[in-house]
Amino acid sequence: MTGTPVSGAVAAAEQPAVVSLRASTSADRDFLKTVFFSTRFDEFAASGLSVTEIDALLAQQFDMQESYYRRHYPAGRFDVVMSGDIPVGRLYHDWKRGRGLSVIDIALLPTFRGAGIGTRLMQALVERAAQAGLAVNLYVEVNNPVQSLYRRMDFVKCGENGIYESLRREAVPFGSIAEPLPGLQSSIAE
């Protein structure tokens, strides 16, 4: 299967001034939990649960998700997304020769969504993967608005389970060079 280079509109999207990655540490746990809560709180608030019940449920889900990701992606990169000196999100990714790049999770705090940071991260990941001859694979919720970005970046649907769609982008370079992303590590495991 072949794809086309990313359209100039996506490649020329407004770029945040200073976006970088750094490896997460145990000291980032509370921040990473805040990012996770920010992606799920509204969904649970509609359930009629109290804030205390939602917090307890989300804390439990966060712990289970972190444990699952680290157990199933032992060579994965678990990065904090930085805008200057400010942590603004998380990017979890795993590079495997023969299987491609798996974007495990990408999430930003609400005040940093829609500012081009996610686009910047995805452009850098896709370009680095294309340079290594790797396809990019990810899962995204069926109703997540970021779907339009992935479609513009030539991701195609490979499957669906009712909640998530499986998307893939073949190892095709961008039509223009994406700006390097400081801190992006892509050591490829066998």
Give the CATH level 1 class.
Alpha Beta
User: Which range best describes the helical content: under 10%, 10-25%, 25-40%, 40-55%, 55-70% or over 70%?
Assistant: 25-40%
Could you state the CATH homologous superfamily?
Gcn5-related N-acetyltransferase (GNAT)
Largest sheet, described in full? Answer: 7 strands, mixed
Mean pLDDT: 87
Organism: Paraburkholderia bryophila
GO cellular component, one term: ribosome
Domain N-acetyltransferase: 39-179
GO molecular function, one term: acyltransferase activity, transferring groups other than amino-acyl groups
Describe the overall structure.
The protein is α+β, with helices and mostly antiparallel strands. The longest helix is centred in the N-terminal third of the chain and has 22 residues, at 51-72. It has a seven-stranded mixed beta sheet with strand order 1-2-3-4-5-7-6, sandwiched between helices. The model is unreliable at 1-16 (pLDDT under 50). It has five helices and seven strands, in the order H-E-H-H-E-E-E-H-E-H-E-E. The chain starts with 7 loop residues before the first helix and ends in a 21-residue tail after the last strand. Helices cover 34% and strands 26% of the residues. The protein has one domain (8-169): Gcn5-related N-acetyltransferase (GNAT) (Aminopeptidase), CATH 3.40.630. It has helices at residues 8-11, 29-45, 51-72, 117-131, 147-152; strands spanning 19-23, 77-83, 86-96, 100-108, 136-141, 156-160, 164-169. The protein is globular and about 50 Å long.
